[in-house]
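dumping this here so i dont lose it
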């Protein structure tokens, strides 16, 4: 791709789409060419808010727009397979919000479509693109804390959420695991890869979604990950990685940290902080920058958020759901390890 602005299409107009658009507007080499919603009025209001030239009242028109270099799919995750698939089949490159899909089968279908059509595809796991998270991963890979023994991570919201809320609606893929638990699972697998065994327990709602879930992942190396997510209790949203020669603690908001502390045996603690030039910790710009870098390099996937890693996380999420007994309407039996 020539060194011109990367032209984005935004599919959906909810809160995460608005947050992403606001960060795109601040990138000098990005432009939002079009936005689409099943509600034309919503698309038009979004377009006016962010100075977008085209507003479509259906997804297909956005997918067919040849002036778009890449589409950001920001629908609820229950619609990711349909929305991203439509764009890939139309020849568009895609950045798809997390969780990537409802289950592994859908994720595999999207990856197959991307490869069939020769398109770029990436899960919007912004945590993996965060500069400080990337530094943490480098330290662990370089042996700063020795061999990893344990990973602990949690993400819980206090609620309470009424039964009609999307987080409790089975029709929308509700529950703590897919919305929140994807972060602890992705964090653990960023450092340790796909686990060799998965155990889990959960408290389910009357609607059949998980209100809170605890998972224990284990690896043949002897490493363990203790992970928790909840929509009935606010947690610290912290993470910790313990190795044979030290530990890294990530304070509240581990998936978009502003600092972390490295503890090494026999040394004073060392604090790593975010560079103010990287923008606010809530910024989604880093994943957008990575997508644009990859497109210009002619890459079909990102080395920061590889598709095999996304599939591995989906396998783990499927395995956890199999253990806790959560299945969504119309969903086939989950393929869990």
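and the seq i came up w/
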């Amino acid at each position: 791709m020539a060194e011109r602005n990367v032209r984005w299409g935004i599919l959906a107009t909810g809160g995460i789409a608005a947050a992403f658009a606001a960060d795109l507007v601040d990138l000098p080499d990005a432009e939002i060419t079009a936005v689409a919603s099943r509600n034309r009025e919503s698309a038009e209001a979004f377009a006016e808010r962010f100075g977008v030239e085209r507003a479509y009242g259906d997804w297909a028109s956005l997918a067919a727009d040849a002036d778009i270099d890449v589409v950001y799919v920001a629908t609820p995750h229950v619609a990711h397979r349909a929305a991203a698939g439509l764009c890939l089949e139309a020849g568009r490159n895609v950045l798809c919000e997390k969780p990537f899909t409802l289950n592994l089968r859908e994720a595999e279908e999207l990856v197959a479509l991307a490869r069939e059509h020769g398109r770029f595809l990436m899960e919007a796991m912004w945590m993996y693109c965060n500069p400080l998270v990337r530094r943490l991963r480098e330290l662990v890979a370089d042996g700063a804390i020795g061999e990893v023994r344990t990973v602990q991570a949690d993400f819980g919201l206090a609620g309470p959420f009424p039964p009609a809320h999307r987080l409790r609606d089975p029709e929308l893929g509700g529950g703590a695991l897919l919305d929140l638990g994807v972060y602890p699972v992705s964090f653990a697998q960023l450092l340790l890869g796909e686990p060799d065994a998965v155990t889990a327990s959960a408290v389910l709602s009357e609607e059949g979604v998980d209100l809170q879930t605890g998972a224990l992942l284990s690896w043949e190396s002897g490493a363990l990950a203790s992970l928790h997510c909840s929509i009935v209790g606010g947690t610290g949203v912290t993470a910790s990685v313990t190795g044979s020669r030290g530990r890294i603690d990530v304070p509240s908001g581990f998936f978009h940290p502003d600092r972390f502390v490295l503890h090494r045996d026999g040394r004073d603690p060392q604090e790593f902080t975010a560079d103010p030039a990287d923008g606010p910790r809530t910024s989604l710009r880093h994943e957008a920058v990575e997508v644009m870098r990859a497109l210009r390099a002619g890459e079909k996937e990102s080395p920061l958020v590889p598709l095999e890693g996304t599939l591995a996380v989906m396998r783990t999420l499927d395995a956890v759901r199999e253990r806790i007994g959560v299945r969504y309407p119309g969903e086939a039996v989950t393929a869990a390890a």
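The first helix runs from residue 15 to 25.
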